[in-house]
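User: Can you help me understand a structure? I only have the sequence.
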Amino acid sequence: HKSYPGLQMIVVFINGKPIPLDNKEMYGHIKTICDSELGVNSQCVKDKNLFKINKSTIANICMKLNAKLGGINHVVDMSRSPSAELFKRPIMFIGAAVSHPGPGTDEYTPSIAAMIG
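Assistant: Let's start by predicting it. Here is the structure, written out as tokens:
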């Protein structure tokens, strides 16, 4: 954003109670403003996850932040793989994922599919 040229990420903590908007509306507004208007990465964290301090939840949030900031979360050491010979030639990986609406969303919320190669 122009006012904060070094700004890379906005983290928003969302209260579990729908005041004045429910969480879905709040999430949508936050993402629209950050992505479309400010051009900055964002991560929403529900307050229940903030107070549910365990390794898994913290690791999940940190990996999301790291990935959005251009970091690398996982690396495969192919030198120790039985398939190492396969990777000495050019090879293309294709990944696919489907994200389905969470519990409580309306019946018209679509699933989103993506593929990258």
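Now, to help you interpret it: The first strand starts at residue 9 and ends at 14. The mean pLDDT is 84. Let me know which part you'd like to focus on.
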